[in-house]
Specification:
alpha+beta; 2 domains; 7-stranded antiparallel β-sheet; 4-stranded antiparallel β-sheet; 18 strands; 32% strand
Length: 318
């Protein structure tokens, strides 16, 4: 039932929500609707959005070719919206009841997904279709803006893009590929000019709605501080010919932090970390430790790409 139905004389449905936690998921049960599924709550706590990616009797969820899932919107203790879509996932709701959902769509030979935004009465604001699977989405606290992120896909237009929507105008604003990669969540600034990509590790990173990376320096530094070996590789690749001096010493510390955090059986990443550390030591002309790191990298991965440099250092030292 929607708010429009209530205004036309239908009685509001009062429901009781029972909440449980399972890992990072908040699961709810609404007995009056025989509903069990995932949920999210508006920042002010007023609205609860719930969805279930399963068929009518709940016997089949996940990838399937039929049996639409359900979504519900509850205003405090009153059920105000009920709807269906193929495979609803990753819902979010604003303080004014505007809500968004990713539809993972029924099984197909083609990658595809649909992003939906709705008003608090259940009427659709927009639907954007992608030739890609959807990763996650978000909505601003005031319900003015929303976004969705796609996964890798062959489509140049749709693969790995973050798409921004102006919900007041019911239109797409821009789409771009975040340099800092996929985020865990999204937060829009109060003035509507920026979106912050929120990560499990590291600080939120700001972009303009058109995709200009405002916090790139913060991203690089925070990644190096926590020993991100792939960021270290990126920085070294952007440094010509090699890191030197105090900068190289900072990068050696990053490599040591990253190597210490690796699993014992992650030989491939360890080989990369040792290679990167060796390059930095090489730039410091610290030949013996550099050669040792090169050799350890080669012992883990003979195709790591440092065999020639290791031979050169070996000759230099003998």
């Amino acid at each position: 039932m929607s708010i429009l139905s209530w205004l036309r004389g239908a009685k509001p449905v009062r429901v009781k929500i029972e909440t449980t936690r399972s890992g990072n998921l908040t699961l709810i049960t609404i007995g009056a609707r025989q509903f069990y599924g995932q949920s999210s709550v508006s920042p002010d706590g007023r609205f609860t959005l719930a969805w279930c990616d399963a068929n009518d009797d709940g016997t089949r969820g996940g990838a399937r070719s039929e049996g639409k899932g359900r979504y519900l919107l509850v205003d405090r203790d009153q059920l105000i919206v009920e709807g269906r879509m193929e495979r609803p996932n990753d819902g979010h709701v604003a303080d004014n009841g505007v809500f968004v959902l990713n539809d993972w769509r029924f099984s197909s030979t083609q990658l595809r997904g649909s992003f939906y935004a709705f008003r608090s009465d259940g009427t659709r604001i927009l639907c954007s279709k992608f030739l890609a699977n959807l990763y996650n989405c978000g909505v601003s606290r005031d319900g003015r803006f929303a976004c969705c992120q796609t996964c890798h896909a062959p489509s140049e237009r749709d693969g790995s893009v973050l798409t921004i929507f102006d919900l007041d105008k019911s239109e797409e604003v821009a789409r771009w590929r975040p340099e800092s990669s996929w985020a865990n969540a999204y937060a829009f600034s109060a003035d509507g000019n920026q979106v912050s990509l929120v990560y499990k590790y590291g600080p939120p990173l700001r972009y303009t709605l058109s995709g200009e990376f405002l916090d790139r320096e913060l991203w690089v530094q925070s990644s190096l501080d926590r020993g991100d070996l792939y960021m270290l590789q990126k920085v070294i690749n952007e440094t010509h010919p090699k890191p030197e001096g105090e900068f190289a010493r900072r990068l050696v510390a990053c490599a040591d932090t990253g190597l210490a955090a690796l699993r014992a059986d992650d030989f491939r990443t360890r080989a990369l970390g040792l290679k990167l550390k060796a390059i930095c030591l090489d730039g410091l002309e610290d030949w013996k430790p550099a050669l040792k790191a090169y050799e350890e990298a080669l012992a883990l991965d003979s195709k790591i790409g440092v065999k020639r440099r290791a031979e050169q250092l070996r000759k230099k030292l003998t």
